[in-house]
Every structure is written in structure tokens, then in C-alpha cells.
Structure to design on (223 residues):
């Protein structure tokens, strides 16, 4: 099975800061990588699909990049409403794997 | 408006069975693969199972293989997850989601607690 290593597991940043989360796949997954946001007590929400495509309605401060095994998720200017846990997810084969999550907090 | 409403969760003893349902509305159900994803209390997301739009192809995580069965009734627009031989480690909120590879819309989840 493909393993997804996400880092950091948590981070604290100030409003307006640039925030970066990385996800590494245990093997080449091309661009079959999504990013989700989950706020406390809520269902996950798809933000980025196919590594770099912004889901409709998602603010442009969110972005994704990468291919192969290394991927990056960026919030260009952290806002208070961005407090959440973020997950990467691969779908290269018929099985799906999530990263361990990154909890983002305001400093 | 797209809606997914899970039901069927509850308290079950170890070794017991439970069937989860997910009622879909607001989209052409048969056109979409569907998924079940779970989240243990305080933990991350774990993919459980998925099914193609026509119900022919099914996929399972190793932890679900042989114990869980995913199915769907496209005439009723309902997704199911039959769970047997339940263990304490199956305790989680179970989400159904629209999409097989890239679940783009999720229900609010149903809690399954496996405990004696």
C-alpha cells in the first residue's frame, strides 16, 4: 500500500503568515493527490484536487503543487477561519490513503 | 442541493454487526462512485471502502476486507456498509462521501461505538 507522510503534524502561525504543509508519498503517484480541510466537529472539505487544482468556491489563498512523490500545500496569508486540520490524500491505485493530518493553529 | 445523510450508527458489542446507510439527494446518484471513510475519536481520516457508480466494482482497505461489505441501491439512492465481526478499533465516526478517488462531498457522519 502507498503510505503518505505529512508534515508537520501541527503548526502555530500568526494571521497573515504564509503556511506550508508537505506530503510525501512512498511511491510515485503522479498528480493523484488531494488536500482536505476539516474544522472541529465538521466533515472534511475538499480544497485542492489533482495536486494543484482549486475546488470551486475555495479562496485563492489556498494552493497546491508537486508531482511524483513530493507535494506542498500552501496558505498564502493565514486567516482566523483557516484554523483546522488539513489532510493530504492519494488515489493512485484503487486504494485510497490519507496523510496523518496537520493541525493549524493561530499564534 | 447535494445532501448525504448517514444513519445506522450506535453501540454494538465486540463481534457484533451493524449496517450503515447513507441516503443521497440533490445529484444523479448512479453517476458517482461512493466512499466510506472513518475517523476514530481524536484521530485522523482512514479510508474504508468504495464502490463504483453501477455497483459492480468494490474496493476495501485491508482493515475492512472480509468483514465489511459495501453496496448500493441506485433506485433508492442509498449507499450501505454492512459491518460484521466488529472490534473495539472499529469505533469511529463513519462518513459517506461522493466520489471514489476524490471524495468531493461528505455527509456529517454517524458514530459507531464498539464496546462491551
Amino acid at each position: 500500500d502507498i503510505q503518505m507522510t505529512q508534515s508537520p503534524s501541527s503548526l502555530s502561525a500568526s494571521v497573515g503568515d504564509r503556511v506550508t504543509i508537505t506530503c510525501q508519498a512512498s511511491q510515485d503517484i503522479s498528480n493523484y493527490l488531494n488536500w482536505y480541510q476539516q474544522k472541529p466537529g465538521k466533515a472534511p472539505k475538499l480544497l485542492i484536487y489533482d495536486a494543484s487544482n482549486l475546488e470551486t468556491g475555495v479562496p485563492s489563498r489556498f494552493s497546491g503543487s508537486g508531482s511524483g512523490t513530493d507535494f506542498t500545500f500552501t496558505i498564502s496569508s493565514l486567516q482566523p477561519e483557516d484554523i483546522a486540520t488539513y489532510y493530504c490524500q492519494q488515489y493512485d491505485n484503487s486504494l485510497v490513503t490519507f496523510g496523518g493530518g496537520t493541525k493549524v493553529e493561530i499564534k | 442541493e447535494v445532501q448525504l445523510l448517514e444513519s445506522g450508527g450506535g453501540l454494538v458489542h465486540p463481534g457484533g454487526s451493524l449496517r450503515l446507510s447513507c441516503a443521497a439527494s440533490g445529484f444523479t446518484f448512479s453517476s458517482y462512485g461512493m466512499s466510506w471513510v472513518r475517523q476514530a475519536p481524536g484521530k485522523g481520516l482512514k479510508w474504508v471502502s468504495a464502490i463504483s457508480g453501477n455497483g459492480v466494482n468494490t474496493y476495501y482497505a485491508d482493515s475492512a476486507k472480509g468483514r465489511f461489505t459495501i453496496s448500493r441501491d441506485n433506485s433508492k439512492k442509498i449507499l450501505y456498509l454492512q459491518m460484521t465481526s466488529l472490534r473495539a478499533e472499529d469505533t469511529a465516526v463513519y462518513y459517506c462521501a461522493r466520489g471514489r478517488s476524490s471524495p468531493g462531498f461528505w455527509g456529517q457522519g454517524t458514530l459507531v461505538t464498539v464496546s462491551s
